[in-house]
Design brief:
single chain, about 70% helix, mainly alpha, two-stranded antiparallel ribbon
C-alpha cells in the first residue's frame, strides 16, 4: 500500500537535495504555522503563498498529486468540524446569520478557516520531505551535525512508523481475508464489536517483533560502537542546496511582507 509517508526512490532535484536543507524547510514551515496570526487578509495570503510553494515542490518532486488529494480528503472532516465549531462558538465579532438560537460569527468562521489552512500547510510539507529523503542520507547528514546516534534513530523510526503500520495492517487484513474473515464486508455494528480484534492483536505482536528486529539491526550496523560507522549514502552541500536555501529565504521575506500587510498595501 502506497502512503504519503514513505520514501520513493527518484532522480528529481528534491531527491538530490541535501537532507539538512529540506529539514530546514520543514522547520521553517512549522514556524510559519505556529506564528501568531490576526484575522486579516495578510494572514490568509501569507499562508496561501507558502502552501503554493509546498505544492510546487510536490509537483517538482514528481509525486502523484492524487496522494495530496487523498491526504486532503482525510483531513476534510477535521476542517469541517473546526470551521463549524468556531463559527458557532466564537465569542466575539458580528453575526452573519443565525441557525436557530445559535449565531454564526464572522470572526469565528474566519478563525476556523485560518486554523484549517495552517493544518493544511503543515501537512503538505511532511509527505514531500519523507517521500524524497532517503533514510540513509538523512541519518548520515544528522550524524555529521554531531547529533548522537540514538536520537537520530528515534527520529528516523518516527518518520517511517506510519508507513510501517499501514503495511502491517494491510498484510494482516489480506491474510484474514484469505481465511474467510473479511472485515470490510461486515456490518458497521458487527465490525465495531468484534471485527477488528483479529487484526489489532496480531498487529501489536508484529510491532513488538519489529522492535526486536530493529534492536538486532542497530547492533549489526555498529550503532553505539566506539568508532563512528561509515556512511552508506554520503551527502554533500553544493549549488543546488544553495539555490533552494535562497528560495526559502525569499519565501520567508514574502511571507513576512504578506503577514505584515505590506504586500497588500
Amino acid at each position: 500500500m502506497n502512503t504519503p509517508f514513505e520514501y520513493q526512490d527518484g532522480e528529481s532535484f528534491l531527491h538530490r537535495l541535501h537532507p539538512n536543507v529540506k529539514l530546514a524547510w520543514v522547520l521553517l514551515t512549522l514556524l510559519v504555522v505556529l506564528a501568531p496570526y490576526g484575522l486579516n487578509a495578510g494572514s490568509f495570503l501569507g499562508l496561501a503563498l507558502w502552501l503554493a510553494f509546498d505544492l510546487a515542490c510536490w509537483l517538482a518532486a514528481g509525486l502523484d498529486f492524487r496522494r495530496f488529494w487523498g491526504l486532503f480528503r482525510i483531513l476534510l472532516f477535521t476542517f469541517a468540524f473546526l470551521v463549524v465549531s468556531q463559527a458557532l462558538l466564537y465569542a466575539t465579532g458580528p453575526d452573519l446569520f443565525r441557525i436557530g438560537p445559535l449565531p454564526v460569527k464572522r470572526d469565528g468562521l474566519a478563525f476556523g478557516l485560518l486554523l484549517s489552512l495552517r493544518i493544511l500547510v503543515a501537512m503538505s510539507v511532511m509527505p514531500v520531505f519523507i517521500s524524497t529523503t532517503s533514510p540513509g542520507k538523512l541519518m548520515a547528514a544528522l550524524l555529521r551535525l554531531g547529533i548522537p546516534a540514538t536520537p537520530v534513530l528515534m527520529f528516523l523510526s518516527a518518520l517511517t512508523f506510519t508507513s510501517t503500520v499501514f503495511e502491517m495492517w494491510q498484510s494482516i487484513v489480506d491474510a484474514q481475508r484469505l481465511r474467510g474473515f473479511d472485515v470490510d464486508a461486515m456490518p458497521l455494528w458487527q465490525r465495531a464489536r468484534k471485527g477488528y480484534i483479529p487484526i489489532v492483536v496480531p498487529l501489536v505482536l508484529m510491532l513488538f517483533r519489529k522492535g526486536n528486529d530493529l534492536d538486532i539491526a542497530l547492533g549489526t550496523k555498529g550503532i553505539g560502537a566506539v568508532r563512528r560507522p561509515t556512511d552508506l549514502e554520503p551527502v554533500s552541500f553544493g549549488l543546488g542546496e544553495a539555490g533552494f536555501s535562497l528560495a526559502l529565504l525569499v519565501m520567508c521575506l514574502v511571507f513576512v511582507a504578506a503577514f505584515s500587510g505590506r504586500l497588500l498595501s
